[in-house]
Amino acid sequence: MNNIEQIKTDKFSFYVFRNIFDGNELEYIWKEALFLCDNSKLENPNITGSAKFENGKLKKNNAGIWLNNIYNKDNLSNYLKIYKKPLQNIHEFKNSDYTLNLYLHTNTDSTLMSYYEDNDYYHSHYDVSAYTYVFWLFKEPKNFLGGDLYFDDVGYKIQVNSNMAVLFPSWVIHSVDKIMMIPGIKPYKGFGRFAFSTFYSFR
């Protein structure tokens, strides 16, 4: 069972989930992640969507694919079959975090699988949704440096681990620092950082 930690800042609360899936579940997710990665199905930020600077330049450099868009039904995706498991007990925190009620009343979501490799990054931005949930997956021992998540407004760094996730209000300014693959890891493909980002909203 995963462990949920509530972390409060002076502007918002967020939630860290550790040891989310068991070995069989992780293998199940890996099969999908590597299939999409190794078969060159991933798309560039112009297709997957990216926050932009005022001059129109994209704020991120990575590859990704919207899982909901490539399957006719969510239950055809390995990840989308089990992605809600970690969040089933989050309602226990609603009395200590009033804004969490916003997440609890969302009624639609979409999931983007992103893959970060050498020199990939995502500069400071916010998401156009109510709440954002990000699950990380990568091969261990880790074959890269960087790739941590920052909440820029409050100066908080989350050192990411595989089989770990975070839930936070989407308006929070956040960024991902540049990935640097460890020399000698070739081919890189599949040895970088996978991020499954689910954006919760209303319809």
Core attributes:
14 strands, seven-stranded antiparallel β-sheet, alpha+beta, Jelly Rolls, 5 helices, 203 residues, five-stranded antiparallel β-sheet
Summarize the structure.
The protein has helices at residues 23-38, 45-48, 67-70, 78-82, 100-104; strands at 3-8, 13-18, 60-61, 63-66, 108-116, 121-125, 131-137, 144-145, 149-151, 156-158, 164-169, 174-176, 180-181, 193-201. It is globular, with a radius of gyration of 16 Å.
Description:
With 203 residues, the chain is an alpha+beta fold. The chain contains five helices and 14 strands. The strands form three sheets. Strands 1-2-11-7-14-5-4 form a seven-stranded antiparallel β-sheet. A five-stranded antiparallel β-sheet has the order 3-6-12-9-10, with no helix packed on it. The protein has a two-stranded antiparallel ribbon with strand order 8-13. The two termini are 31 Å apart. The model has no long low-confidence stretch (mean pLDDT 93).
Q: Tell me what the CATH architecture is.
A: Sandwich
What summary fits the major beta sheet? Answer: 7 strands, antiparallel
Q: CATH topology, what is it called?
A: Jelly Rolls
Which CATH class applies here? Answer: Mainly Beta
The tally of domains stands at: 1
| CA-based gyration radius | 16 Å
Segments where pLDDT lies below 50 for 5+ residues? none
Summarize the amount of helix as a percent range: 10-25%
Which structural class do the helices and strands define?
alpha+beta
Separation of the first and last Cα atoms: 31 Å
Can you count the helices?
Answer: 5
From the spread of the alpha carbons, the general shape counts as globular
SSE pattern: EEHHEEHHHEEEEEEEEEE
**Name of the CATH homologous superfamily:** q2cbj1_9rhob like domain
Within the largest sheet, what's the order of strands? 1-2-11-7-14-5-4
Structure summary, number of beta strands: 14
- How confident overall, as mean pLDDT? 93
Strand proportion, as a percent range, falls in 25-35%
